[in-house]
Amino acid sequence: MTIELQVTDNIVRIQTFPEKVVTDEVYTAFMDKWRKGQDAELPEPDRVIARELSVTDGLLPEDLKAEQTDMIVRAQTEWHFNVLSEKLAQNYRSELAEIEDRIERAGAYSSDLWNQAKAFWQKVQGQLQDKTLMREQGNELRKRSDAVFAKLKELREAVNAQYEEESGKQKAKFATLLDDVEKRIVEGTHLNKVFQELRELQRKFHGVKFTKTDRDHVYGRIDAAFKAVKEKRGGGKGSDGGSAATAALGRNESRYQGLLKAMERMQKSIGRDEEDLKFERRRIERTDGQLEAQIRQAKIVMIESRVASKNEKLADMVKTKAMLEGRIEKDKQRAEKQARKAAERAAKDAARAKIAAEMGSRTVSPEEQAKLAAAAALIKEGKRKGKADRKELRQAAPGDVAANFAAFSQVLAGEVDPPRKVKGKQRTAAPSLLQQATEVVDEVIEKAQHEVQSVVDTVKATARVISEEE
User: Fold this and answer.
1) Where are the beta strands (DSSP E) in 274-318?
2) How far apart are the C-alpha atoms of 126 and 105, rounded to whole Å?
3) C-alpha span between 129 and 2 (Å, rounded)
């Protein structure tokens, strides 16, 4: 009697042979060839029975018995597992066939196709590790999956070649624009306009896809151009309308734009988490198993905790945004004020130059020469008094040094007469110069705070990007 499982059809095929036709040669053919799936010359059976494989019913009909009943029971349990494993493998074959068909119809590389193929193979690997698939089935799926990945890699190489070509064109385009900008930076003309053009160029740069090498090259040139412009503008000593205030405004505006992008990314991340929450809550309502429900509930708690943490960070970003808006408005007012002062200084310098030119072409009378000599004597006397004041300043108490220095600066500037120390009274400081000194100190402190905050923002942004990728 032979019992054969037809796995695909879930059928057990039973054949019986009369003992008289089963010679030693026939028995050997059964054992050495037929059992291994090889072709063998066998006699005609006298009875053929086809039965559906069942977990509850036995393999053999009631009228047939076998001496080795344990072998029959073991075969029944193993064959049932083989049928289920074959059904699972057939499902994977169908899924893999769909992926192969999508790749053929797409005709070009797509990251979605790659992710689908990767997710499929991860599922197959999990089944192989759990030994729910046979080795032969796993080898078959592995060979077909390898062919799928090879095809995707071939398509990706074609896309990469096209991508590198487009990146080279964009690099050449930016190089032309940067050549013109760098030339004007060297000439030192219209630096404010050049700075604005660089900012626009930087904005376009972030919207273009480059290869890593081309991106680093173009970014390096843009960064060097920014530094050159800032150096040129800072070296003008206020000739371009208050470079310090303008630089502070640029730093705060750059930080503000970066913050807006970070807020946008955070809002999108929160949106994705909220969608995951909706999905898990819908699935938990349709979950039958208690274990799966517990797992999904735990996952919901994790996602809710993540959303709460991100909302706290977003609230901090909103506060920082309001603070930056206030600073930007203050920087604008300061820049405008310094620009007006620079214009006034330029007008005064022009007036002095005009007067000097006119005086150089005039003939000075003896009376005017006498007046000029008297004025020179007064100036000399003022310098002598200033020297005495400096000596007194060095001997002053530490608490009076700042006030004395401010008052002395006002005297040198010609704003007031040298204040003299009266018995029982302290020297009076110059309020206007003290106010200017305070503004300078505030500006230095604000710049230092800005540098520290920039470092903190960079660390936070890096942590967010890493968290989102994970």
Assistant:
1) none
2) 29
3) 33
Distance CA(147)–CA(103), nearest Å, equals 11
Residues 405-418 have pLDDT tens digits of: 455 445 444 444 54
12 by Cβ neighbours in 10 Å (0-12 / 13-18 / 19+) ranks as buried
pLDDT, tens only, 143-202: 999 999 988 888 888 878 888 888 888 888 888 888 888 888 888 777 888 888 888 888
Cα distances from 147 to residues 298, 413, 442, in angstroms, run 39, 85, 67
Contacts of 100 (CB under 8 A, 6+ apart): 144, 148
Q: How far apart are the first and last CA of the chain?
A: 60
390-398, long-range: CB < 8 A, 24+ apart:
392/421, 396/427
DSSP 369-437: HHHHHHHHHHHHHHHHHHHHHHHHHHTS-GGGHHHHHHHHHHHHTTSSPPPPPPTT-PPPP-HHHHHHH
Beta bridge partner(s), residue 49: 14
Give the burial class of 404: count Cβ atoms within 10 A of its Cβ; 0-12 exposed, 13-18 middle, 19 or more buried. Answer: buried
pTM of structure: 0.36
Collect all residues with Cβ–Cβ distance below 8 Å to 45 and sequence separation of at least 6: 2, 15, 16, 17
Rounded to whole angstroms, the Cα distance separating 101 from 89 reads 18
Classify residue 208 by its DSSP letter: S
CA distance 195 to 226: 7
Distance in angstroms (rounded) separating the CA atoms of residues 234 and 269: 41
Token couple for 56: 């509850």
95, amino acid identity: E
- Is the Cα dihedral 322, 326, 329, 332 positive or negative? negative
